What does this fold into?
Amino acid sequence: MKIDKIDEQIIAILQKDAKSNVKSIADQLNMTKTPIYERIKKLENEGIIEKYVAIVNRQKLKGGMFVFCSVSLEVQKLEHIERFKAEISEIPEVMECYLMGGANDFLLKLHVNDLNAYHQFSSGKLAALDNVSQIKSTFVLDVVKKESAIEVF
It folds into this structure.
């Protein structure tokens, strides 16, 4: 689907505040509600807008710490990669998982309660998965910038 400037503006508004209603967006873009509603539905149906979420500050809600783990697999055959992806997707501490090119095979973003919880996770869950050969961890001391919106222009 090709998007135009109006679609880009709608996306930008919704990324800033997903609770923006059609009337508010229409007012901001100096348009009527119907074409805005239809454009939003089309963006949703085409999968450009995947979902609407509330971004929760987990530090304020639960406390804990964030950890990034680089994971290398022993065997990089497709079936082993797919198995790891399926297994890692079921582990609640893993917030994000990326298949990487380069020195490591996967990069994980974790949220755990404390160092002991991380130790239990890394040795009891992550290292216990088939085909994991190496885990390198980096601990977040401070979040300097965190952005969920992507620039569409």
Notes: The mean pLDDT is 92. The helical segments are 5-16, 22-28, 33-45, 58-61, 78-89, 115-126.
